[in-house]
Amino acid sequence: MTVSVAWDAPDPLPGPLVVRTVEVSDPGPLAARLPRGPVAAWLRRGEGMVAWGRTARVRPGGGADRFDAATRSLAALADRAEVHDPLEVPGSGLVAFGSFTFDPADAGSVLEVPAAVLGRRGGRAWFTTIGAHPAAPPAPLVDAPRPPGPLRWSPGARTAEQWRGAVAAAVARIRSGGLDKVVMARDLLARADAPIDERALLDRLARRHPDCYTFAVDGLVGATPELLVRRSGRSVEALVLAGTSPRGAGPSEDRALAERLAASAKDAEEHRYAVESVRTALAPLCADLDIADRPRLLRLANVQHLATPVHGTLAADRTALSVAAALHPTAAVCGTPTPAALEAIRELEGMGRGRYAGPVGWVDQRGDGEWGIALRCAHIDGPTARLFAGCGIVADSDPAAELAEADNKFRVMADALTG
Ligand SMILES: C=C(O[C@H]1C=CC=C(C(=O)O)[C@@H]1O)C(=O)O
Fold it and tell me: Where is the Chorismate-utilising enzyme C-terminal domain (predicted)?
């Protein structure tokens, strides 16, 4: 396996990497500050970070150790960094944004160090420059992002009908034994007349989905509700999601749908597998681990989910990325048991997931960071967007209902693209 660190300056590395963080006055909505060019973002409820430019990029290739390979490259970079960071809050100083493939067999994972970062946490804002030359401080944008114009839509790897058939095949496989749950996903393609400006999507997503984590890393853009891990010192947190219902047209239908979700044995089963996969991964890493006994309801703009909060204390020092690596893939996106579910996904989905359903987020030089599961997202490549949505399948799943659920999940990105 190859690990490459590609610099936008000539090799070998251009002397020490200078990282400078300064406190700045409130910059207003972060997404509105992004200039044109490569961007990265992690935003929720007005806090988080936006980043631009590219000082270093690591492409660790495929393999189960792609997370370790990226971590080693980042550590080598941190070793030669000269960091001036008077704030020392999670995300200040040297920070990298990453997005990893769902399937260990797939190449395409990326960890990148931007040239400039604008962040806000707990009401304090900062600006960081990373690189041999200081980047320009954030200024009001002269080139406001343009939303995509008219789009042409087409099916991805499978038509709706074919995907329903794949879900039926997954149900049959579960009923025949050896597999308890598998998450089946599908993709959808949209094509614009001109390159899609990710900044317009970020702005819409962050405003419409304040309870989700709006993210962008190397063309993967979305708003995920699922927190794989937040690491702050020895403290870790996660929010496990699985089990979904639509939103109602009004409050009473909404409540009725929520009650049906809470009472559904099928959704409880889906959810239980996801929680147990997180417990199994975190228990060996934690000195204490607190997982709620019963899920609560998480209401989002287009769906409602069963959600279980998780809190723990790490037994030994580990970076946020290393904890994310230990957790991936949870049964919220793969299934139970993991190897049989991964095999079923490879055989039945008929597509490569790329970085959809993989960890996406950031890690700083202290090891703090936040990683979500890349859901409700699209891969933007020039004028094309490839949207993804998946659903947990258990023995009692109904393929038609799962198709409707996937359509609801597509809406997050479809609406961000269309207006
Ligand atoms: C796989 C996805 O959602 C997961 C997260 C929450 C609820 C899910 C479900 O109810 O099936 C999925 O496990 C997706 O949005 O593509």
Answer: 160-409
Q: What is the extent of the structural domain holding 172?
A: 4-134+151-418
Query: pLDDT per residue over 163-193, tens digit each?
Result: 999 999 999 999 999 999 999 999 999 999 9
Ligand 1 environment, Cβ below 6 A: 183, 185, 226, 241-244, 270, 305, 332-333, 375-376, 389-392, 409
Claim: this prediction has a pTM higher than 0.90 = yes
What lies within 8 Å, CB to CB, of 196 at 6+ separation is: 148, 380, 382, 383, 384, 385, 417
User: Does a structural domain hold residue 139?
Assistant: no
ipTM, interface predicted TM-score of the complex = 0.99
Q: Is residue 338 part of a domain?
A: yes
**Mean pLDDT over all residues of the chain?**
94
Q: For the residues 336-358, what does the mean pLDDT come to? A: 98
Q: Exactly one of 181, 198, 269, 270 is catalytic; which is it? A: 181
Catalytic, 181? Answer yes
Pairing of strands 116-121, 47-52: antiparallel
Ligand 1 centre from 301 Cα, in Å?
A: 15
| Measured distance CA(370)–CA(213) in Å, rounded | 10
In a domain, 346, yes or no: yes
CA distance 250 to 136: 48
Structurally, the chain folds into a number of domains equal to: 1
Catalytic hit among 112, 198, 226, 370: 226
Q: Is residue 142 part of a domain?
A: no
Q: Which atom of ligand 1 is nearest to the CA of 391?
A: 11
* CATH number for the domain that contains residue 169: 3.60.120.10
Work out which ligand 1 atom sits closest to the CA atom of 226.
5
> What residue spans of 108-245 are helical by DSSP H?
160-175, 198-208
